[in-house]
Request: fold
Amino acid sequence: DKEQIAEEVERRIGTKPFQMWFGSAALSLKDGALHVATGSSFEADWIARRFGRDLDATATEALGKDASVSITTRDAPAPARKSGPAVAPVSGQRASSATGSLQAASQRPSSPRRRFLDLDTFVVGASNRLAWAATSTIIQDNTHRGSLFIHGPCGVGKTHLLQGLCRSIGARDGWSSLRYLTGEQFTNEYIAAIKDKRIERFRRSLRRLRLLAIDDVHFVAGKQRTQEELLHTIDAISLGGATVVLASDAAPDQIRRFQRGLVSRCRGGNVVGIEPPDMETCRALAVGLADARNLTLDEAAIDMVSAEAGDEVRAMTGLLTRIAAARMLTPCEGPVTCAQVRAALQCGSIKAPIRLDNLVSATAEVLGFSVSTLTGSGRTARVVLGRALVAWLARDCTGASFPEIAEALKRRSHSSAIAGHRRIEQDLAAAVTVPLAQAQVPLRDLVERIRRRAQH
Reply:
């Protein structure tokens, strides 16, 4: 009924936005459509653009996957259009003769599939192949059950995989049986459900799903009641034969204040990591991101973009966006050249000086272990390499003395820092490669990767 529909919309968008934008609107279900009648074309325009996705999901849940949404002003009713099998578009039209921004917005499907990233654009390399294969298995195997946990540092493609998974399954099976959330959204919805005494409704809405995907699940760490609710949700969905996919910046047992029960449930499924991309994958990313902006890079420009941005995908995105903007202001023919890349780099923000403690943490992160491991007593080849890299980079970037470097690494004597610095100097001169992310990476590339990470 109308009250239940209103409650569902309020649950999805929040009490304050609902009161502000739907307080004077009329919600109704009729002829297989969710109708929203607003007081003005401005309200209709805003609701269509800002809340179209939530209305779409509400209509699908209440009426099925063929439902549609009609947003109109009260003096200009418009019939609802039927949607395709995968999405329910928001439809409506303005009453006035002004330019039809609402009409343009409402004719565009507001479903998640328009906003979610597509797996077809995901660049697969040695660093992410296992995670991509695990995600693809869920899509290909309709009978897949259990859980998948994807972990890795920021900007390596975890969100891309989760959204691509949801987009593929939503297009095939319909959106009503899946949900994509962030850890923050799960927390906020859970708290709101308790506050508004709608906890059972909240639980039913999640536990009936065939696929639940939660990004940045580490957000719930330290929130005892939220973690308990998430644990019960995972158990209920798994017992029902559905799939749970989670993503985090760290592996389950490395998330601080993550409940033991959650760690156990996550490790009971498929846990895969994503490393920062190697240079070959970075080149492929540069080409793909440039193509998305209608840019063609010449070979030298590809090398420069890859070297300057490295494994920082967001930095690469920003660099290519600046290049595209510059070429719009000054139209030019042919592929992007190194000179244009260099000009875009000069337009970038000036980075703060690198600090020694940032170098230590960046080295540990890139090599895949904790700072305490780097500064501890371990003597594995990778840890020893990490200390040597800190020593060389610290001398190159910070001007710190060898005793200061030794103190930062918690070494008794600075002779180890001197030896490490000498080792990297020799290896760089010899152009050696080192193992990283199941591949051999040039040491110079690894040095630049750590340097960039320490600058952020």
